[in-house]
Amino acid sequence: MKIFNTMTRRKEEFVPIEPGKVRMYVCGPTVYNLIHIGNARPMIVFDTFRRYLEHKGYEVNYVSNFTDVDDKIIKASVEEGVTSDEIAERYIAECKKDMEGMNVRPATVHPRATQEIDGMINMIGTLIDKGHAYVKNGTVYFATRSFAQYGKLSGKNLDELRSGFRNLKVSGEEEKADPLDFVLWKPRKEGEPAWGSPWSEGRPGWHIECSVMSKRYLGEEIDIHAGGEDLIFPHHENEIAQSECTSDKRFARYWMHNAFLNIDGTKMSKSLGNFFTVRDIAAKYDLQVLRLFMLSAHYRSPLNFSAELMESARSSLERIRRAASRLTDLAAAAGEAKEDESAKIEAAKAFVDRFDEKMDDDNNTADALSVVFDLVRFANTEVNETSSKELVDTVTDILRELTDILGLIVFVKEELLDADIEALIAERQAARKARNFARADEIRNELKEKGIELMDTREGVKWKRI
Ligand code: AMP
Ligand code: ZN
User: Fold this and answer.
1) Mean local confidence (pLDDT), 214-241
2) Could you read off the pLDDT of 433-461 as tens digits, one per residue?
3) What is the Cα–Cα distance from 273 to 264, expressed in whole angstroms?
4) N or C terminus of the chain with fewer C-beta within 10 Å?
C-alpha cells in the first residue's frame, strides 16, 4: 500500500513501525461552534482510511483531539456569559452527533487539551532544559533556530518568512528572539481560563497539545499524522519541532494532508463566513450523501461544494441502495443453482481486489467508488430471479464489505430503528382516526416493504421484523 507523504512529496510504500499495528493521529476541530463541512472533510477522509487499514488487517490506534482552549472559545464564552468549559462541552457533544450522522467512527481516544495540561508543562520544561525554549516575562517561546530541521515538512524558505514577519511586528510578541519562534505557554489575561506553571499562571499555545497527546496515547514515534493542508505550516511544522526536540526521535513517518473543500473556488471557513455547517446539510440531505460527495474526489484534490454535485451524490447513493435492496429481495427467494455460476462468483470476488488496488494507491476513494458502481452494474445485470442463493449472497457480502470500508450505509432496510417504526405506527393510527385509510394503508405497505409486519390486536398495534 502506498501513501503520499507530504514530508517527501512522493508516494511511499507504507511500512508501520510495529508489524500489524498502526498508530495514527488526526488533528481535530476547535470546539467553539458547530463544525462546518470543510472540517468534515478530514473526518470522513481519514475515517475511511482507518476503515481500510482495518480491512487490510491492521489494528489501528486512532487518536483525534478536541482543541478546547483557544481564543475563539474564550470569545464565545464571553459573548454568551458562560464558561469556556461549557462552550467546549456543548460543541464536543454536537460534533459527536455530526460524526455519528456521517458514520465517522469515534476515535480510539478523543483527548481534550484542557485535560492534558500536566503533560504540556512537562514537555515545555524539557524543551527549556534542552535549550530549545526560553522564557520572557512569563511567556515561553520555542526557539526555532535551535532545531536545524525546522521547515522540513513545509519546505518553506525560512529566511523569506523571517524578513516578512519582521515587517509585520506582531503585537505583544516583539520580545521574541526570532520572528518564527512560537508560543508554548502564555500568561493569563483577565477573565481567561488559566493553570499554574513554573513560568506563569496561564495557558498553553495551540501546537504543544498535539505533540503531547500524540506522545501520551501513541508513543514518541507514530506511523501517520494527518489533517487539513492548512495545518502543514505552521501547526505541523511546530509539532515536529517540539516532539523531535523532546525525544530526539522521528515524530511521524507519514504525513497525510487533505486539500480544501472550497465554495466558489475559495476555501470554506468560518472566518470568511462562506460555510455550511454539517447541521445545515443534515436538514436537507441524508448525511450519507455528504459522505459520498466527499469520497467522490481524491482527498488531495480541492473539492468544490455545489448543489449539483450534492444532487449527483444523492442519486449515486440511491443507485447503490436500490441494488442493495434488490439483492436483499432476491436472497429471500433464491435457492439452488440452476446452472454453473462459478465464473460469475469469481467475477464478483474480483471486485474486492480491484477496490483494494485503488485504495492501496494513496487512499484513492474516488476510483474505489467507481469500482463499487461497477459492482452495482454487475449485480443489476448478472444477478436475477434465477440466481442461486450462493451467488446472491456472495455479491451481497462484497457490496456490504466495500461500502462498509467507505463508511456508506447502503443496506438501509436493516437500519430502520425501533423509534422510526413506532413513529410510523403512530402516524398510521392518527390517519385511521381521521378516516384517511389510504394513508394508513400506505404506511402499512411502506413498513412491509422494509420488512416490518403490523398486527392489529385488541391491545393495540404490535409489530415484528420479518
Ligand atoms: P479547525 O477547527 O479550523 O482547527 O479545523 C479542523 C480540521 O478541519 C483541520 O484538519 C483543518 O485543516 C480542517 N479544515 C478546516 N477547513 C477546511 C476546509 N475548508 N476544507 C478541508 N479541511 C478543512
Ligand atoms: Zn494538531
Assistant:
1) 98
2) 999 999 999 999 888 887 888 988 888 88
3) 13
4) C
In this structure, are residues 269 and 298 in contact, taking their beta carbons and an 8 Å threshold?
no
The pLDDT assigned to 466 comes to 75
Query: Which of 243, 258, 273 finishes a domain?
Result: 258
| 56 and 1 Cβ atoms separated by less than 8 Å | yes
> Which protein residue has the closest C-alpha to ligand 1 atom 4?
29
Helix axes 365-382, 342-360, angle to 10 degrees: 170
Which CATH number goes with the domain that contains 365? 1.20.120.640
pLDDT at 70: 93
- Nearest atom in ligand 1 to the alpha carbon of residue 259 is 21
The answer on 166 and 31 residing in a single domain is yes
Q: Are residues 349 and 427 in the same domain?
A: no
Average pLDDT over residues 252-259: 98
Please indicate, yes or no, whether residues 132 and 38 belong to a single structural domain of this protein: yes
Together in a domain, 98 and 139 = yes
| Structure-block grid coordinates of residue 345 | 462468483
Query: Is 302 a domain residue?
Result: no
428 and 401 in a common domain? no
What is the atom index within ligand 1 of the atom nearest the CA of 261? 20
- Sheet of strand 266-267, all strands in order from the earlier edge strand to the far edge: 266-267, 261-263, 303-304
pLDDT tens digits, one per residue of 39-79: 999 999 999 999 999 999 999 999 999 999 999 999 999 99
Domain that holds residue 315: 308-406
User: Are 155 and 39 in a shared domain?
Assistant: yes
Check pLDDT > 70 for residue 82.
yes
- Decide: pTM greater than 0.85: yes
Ligand 1, atom 18, lies closest to the CA of: 38
Rounded Cα distance between 165 and 144, Å, is: 14
Å from CA of 228 to ligand 1 middle: 5
In a shared domain, residues 344 and 400: yes
CA 31 to ligand 1: nearest atom = 2
Q: How far is the CA of 261 from the centre of ligand 1 (A)?
A: 9
Instruction: State the pLDDT at residue 166.
Output: 67
Residues 382, 436 share a domain: no
Residue nearest to atom 14 of ligand 1 (CA): 39
Through-space distance between the first and last CA atoms of the chain, rounded to whole angstroms:
42
> 248 is written with which cell numbers?
530526539
The Å distance, Cα 39 to ligand 1 centre, comes to: 4
Count of domains in the chain? 3
Atom of ligand 1 nearest to the CA of 262: 19
